[in-house]
Amino acid sequence: MSFGWAPSVADRRLLPEGRFAGPMPWVIAIMMFLTALAAAAGLGLSAAARGLGDDLAGRLTIQIVDANPDTRKARAEAVERALADAPGVVAVKRFTDREIAGLLEPWLGGEELSGQDLPIPALIDVSLADGSIARIRAAEQVVRAVAPAARIDRHARWLAPLAGLIASLKWLSAVLVILMAAATACAVVLAARAALNTHRATIDVLHLMGANDVQIARLFQRRIALDALFGGLVGLLSAVAVLLLLGSRIAAIGSELLGSVGLSWGDWAIIVSLPFAGALLATLAARITVLKTLRKML
């Protein structure tokens, strides 16, 4: 009988139950399923937060409010010209009356809106080179010099609560991944202790034959690692199927905000590596548990 790193066929007969028996592989499969979903949610929300910040940090919306349509139009054109020549301004777009009517249609109905019936503010969308405070204030000063009564809205300001919610959900996903890893380690510890109690007589015989604790621990940790890897792969495949289904549903909605919650190839690589990380965690937990328990047996 060999007690090296790779056990022989005879050694494997001394090991605990196989991969398809016992509850531990299936418990780990459930844990890995939830862990992969939580990790995917956290990675997707991180990408959405980065995209949201990059897209809105340097964006401004300017409203020119005036009951007189001619005065409103003249001030809007003056603001547009001033911003076009301002340093740090990447793009300036003034919405037409038809575009503004399309934006208001869901709330005010499909009837044609005219400046005489309902005074509609002129809207100007501004994209800056960066979202620094100095750049934003410089653009605001340019607008105030031309139209002091203009209303300037920073996109990042009114979407700050949404960005805060996304950040909270991202950290919640990270906490869930950590809790799932801890629960997996606890399940491995319980399984290792149960296996040691079941095979205590065999362990005594191995001690009498000259096997040390490290050699015996290798027998148990190898089988537990295989069980953990099998359960992790099952959980990962189930999670990937759910993520692909959710991705197709999100794409069908066509929402720009929901569409930003996506996974890159690097994110997928992290998710695919989770079962192997789980198997490594199970191996370490099993080794530590078995060695500590064997020392108490002596």
Task: Please give a structural write-up.
The protein is an alpha+beta fold and 298 residues long. Helices cover 70% and strands 8% of the residues. It has twelve helices and four strands, in the order H-H-E-H-E-H-E-H-E-H-H-H-H-H-H-H. It has helices spanning 9-12, 24-56, 69-84, 97-108, 133-146, 155-158, 160-198, 200-208, 213-253, 256-259, 265-272, 274-297, and strands at 59-64, 89-94, 122-128, 151-154. It has a four-stranded antiparallel sheet. It is rod-shaped. The two termini are 22 Å apart. Residues 1-11 and 16-20 have low confidence and may be disordered.
Biggest β-sheet description? 4 strands, antiparallel
* Beta-strand residue percentage: 5-15%
Distance between the termini: 22 Å
Rg (CA only): 31 Å
Element pattern in H and E: HHEHEHEHEHHHHHHH
Shape: rod-shaped
Average pLDDT figure: 78
Please identify the structural class as seen in this structure: alpha+beta
Q: Uncertain segments of ≥5 residues (pLDDT<50)?
A: 1-11, 16-20
Count of DSSP strands = 4
Number of helical stretches of at least 4 residues: 12
User: Can you list the strand order of the major beta sheet?
Assistant: 2-3-1-4
- Helical residue percent? 55-70%
